[in-house]
Amino acid sequence: MDLILWVLLAVVSLLFWLYQINKDYYVLAFFAPRVKTKDGRPEWTIAPVPKGRTIFANGFDLYGLTEQQVFQRLRIRAETFPSSFIEYGFGIAIYNITDAESADLVLNDQNLITKSIIYDFLHPALCTGLLTSTDKKWHSRRRLVTPTFHFNILGQFEEIFKAESFKFVEQFNGASEISISVSELIPRFTLNCICETAMGVKLDDMAEKGDLYRENFTMIDKSFVRRLSNPFFWNKTLYEYFRPKADASSLKVVHDFSNEIIAKRRILLEADLQHRKTTQDADEDIYVNNKPRFAMLDTLIFAETDGLIDHKGICEEVDTLMFEGFDGTSIGLTFGLMNMSLYGDKQELCYQEINEYIADDLSNLDINQIGKLKYLDCFIKETMRMFPSVPVTGRQAVRETELANGLILPAGTQISLHIFDIHRSPKYWDSPDKFQPERFLPENCRDRHTYAYIPFSAGQRNCIGQKYAMLEMKTLLIVVLKQYKILPLIDTKDLVFSTGITLRTDNNIKVKLVKRQ
Ligand code: HEM
User: How much is the ipTM here?
Assistant: First the structure.
C-alpha cells in the first residue's frame, strides 16, 4: 500500500513539475525553450501556435510527407496564419514569418545574421562558404567577394551573357518553329554563364561533366528535403549513419567538378599573368578597367597568395557561387520564359520596348541599354514575385533576442522567412495569383511595404549576385525575343511544386518558339 502511495505521489510531483516547467519549455516538443513576450503575455497572443499533427507539438508535422506535400503543407499554414506563427519542434522553437513587417524586423536585426539549422543540411555540399557561414568568417568572405560584383565587372560579364545567349538560340539552327524544354536547356545555359564569368573557365569541352554536376545537385536537393522532414535527421551523426549511399557519390561528383574548375583556372591564370608580364600589360587595379578581365575566382586565388583564404576556403566559395549562380538564375529564367509564353500581350510590350532601345543586330546590347528597359524589369520582377527561386530563407537567434513586436526569442530559436507566401499575401498584393508586371511601375509601388517583395532577401545577408542575375536573365530574354515569338505549351493549372533548397516543379516546362519575320 505504502508503495502505491509513494508511486502516486511521485507521478503527481512529476506532473506538477512538468506543468511548471511547461511555462518555460514546451514539454511535449522535447523541452523546446518557449518564446516569451516583453509584457509577459502568452506568445500566442502575438504569434499563434498551430496545433501539431502528433502530441509532440509540431515536431513531426512534415514527417513522412513527399516533397510536394511538404510544399503544400507550408502554403496552407501560411494561408491560415498570414501574420506569422510559432511552432515547437524537436527541442526548438521555430518563428515562421509570413508578413513583410516581421520580415523587416528580422532581416534588419544585426543580431540575426546567423543562418538557421536547415543551412547545416547544405554543409556537406557547400561547407561553410558565403551562404552558410556566420560571424567573422562571413564578414571577411563577404568583404573579399563583394568587389567582384562591381558595376564595371558586370559590364564585362555582359559580353559573356550575350555570347552564351547567342549560342542558346543558335542551337535551334534557325528553325522557323520549334518546341523546346526550357527546364532542360536553361540550367545548361546558366551553368555555362557562371563557369565562364565567375570561374573563368569555358565549359565547351566539359559539357558532359556539367550535365552530371547538375544531375547530382538534384540528388543533394532530395537529401535536403529528407533531412528537413525528419526531425531525427536534423542530427548530423544520425543522418550520416542512415543516409543513402548515393548521397556520398553525388557529393563526390559535385566536388570533383568544382575541383577540376579550380585546377583549370589556376593554370589559365598563371598563363594569363605571364602573358601580361611579357606584354607589359599588368595593371594594378583588377576591378576597374577595360583590359582583359579577371574572373571572380582569380580574386580568391590572389587572396590566397596574400594569406586571406586557403585552398579549402576557395573550394567553399566556388561551390557556393556555382550553386547559387546557376540554380537561382535558372529558376528565374525558366519561369520568365514560361510567363512570356503564357501572357502574349505582356510579351508584346516587352518586345516593343526592346525594339525601341536595342538594335536588330544587337550590336548595342550592353549594360547601359539594358538599364533602359523598364517594362522588361517589371516583367522579371513579377515573375520572381510569383515564383521566387528561394521560397524560404532562415536565420537563428544565437542569443536571446527581443523583437520590436514584443516577442522575446530564446537562444536557439529558428526563424523561417516564407518569401513565397509574403509574395502571394493579399495583404500587399491585389489578386496575388494574377500575373501583372505593372504592379512594379514606380507609381504602383509607392504605398507597398518594401519587404513585401524580397526575392533576393534583404539586409546584410541579401543576395550578393542580384544585379548579376538580373543582367543575365534580361540578356537571354532580349536575345530570344528579338528572334522568336514565344507560345505556350503548359497551363499554370498543371504546375506541381515541390520543396527543395530552391523552388522545384515536377513539370517539364516547355514553350514553342516561332521565328519572327
Ligand atoms: C534569380 C537569381 C537569384 C535569386 C532569386 C537569389 C536569391 C538569393 C537569396 C534569397 C539569398 C539569401 C539567402 C538567405 O538569406 O538565406 C541569396 C544569397 C546569396 N546569393 Fe543569390 N540569388 C540569385 C542569384 C545569384 C547569383 C547569380 C549569385 C552569384 C553569382 C548568387 C550568390 C549568392 C550568394 C553568395 C549568397 C549568400 C550571400 C551572403 O549570405 O552573404 N545568387 N540569393
Answer: 0.99
